[in-house]
Amino acid sequence: MAGLEFAGRGRATPADAPRPRSLAETAYDAIEQMIITRRLAPGAMVSEGELGAELGLGRTPVREALARLKTIGFVEVHPRRGVLVTQVDIIKHLELLEVRRPLDETVARCAIARATEADVARLLDCVGGLRSTAEARDREAYFRHKRALHEGLVGAAHNPTLTGTMAALHAQSRRFWYTYEPSASFPDCAAIHAAIVSGIAARDAGTALAGIGTLFDFLDQMTRRALDRRPLV
Predict the structure, then answer these.
(1) Domain named HTH gntR-type: which ranges (predicted)?
(2) Region for residue 63 given its phi and psi (left: phi exceeds 0; alpha: psi -120 to 50; beta: otherwise)
(3) Mean pLDDT, to the nearest integer, of 16-40?
């Protein structure tokens, strides 16, 4: 069946075609961003009604979004009290890095095998945006471009199972790094991401995987240093 085939190099499957976003997905993206950027700070208690009014959405999509956010540890739902935004946990982030490293390697291998020319062009564009915002030390724009790059990498892998798994892990990572990554480290981190993308664009697994190893060593060191300092935002 053609719909079940993996995408080959330069070719995408019908499953890759974009689809309209649901109201629940719109609510999820908006609330996730509010939590990551600390507009909804750890310890805040909010209600479905308040969030719906803020977003101009009904209770049903907000409730569905909160259920998803609960599964990735962003919120706790307390009946008759409201929704509690959880704390950012450094130890849990170290555990997350252990899980992410081999999965990021899998994403890179799949992208090398299956990325289309359009995928590669998107990745190179994302890296350009990431590096420029890193040099400007623009935290919000930097993390917006980092999200676009992560989504581009996973999209280039053309593996729906990876897409769902990595979306949750990347959201948790973005929340941690928005809180703890020093802006002085932005250019170095962006340069490492650029090396990974260069390897994928060249179909060079050795370069891409070496870049991922460098990235996760770098992230592990920054996470451990965060144990000794307060949140930066």
Answers:
(1) 21-88
(2) alpha
(3) 88
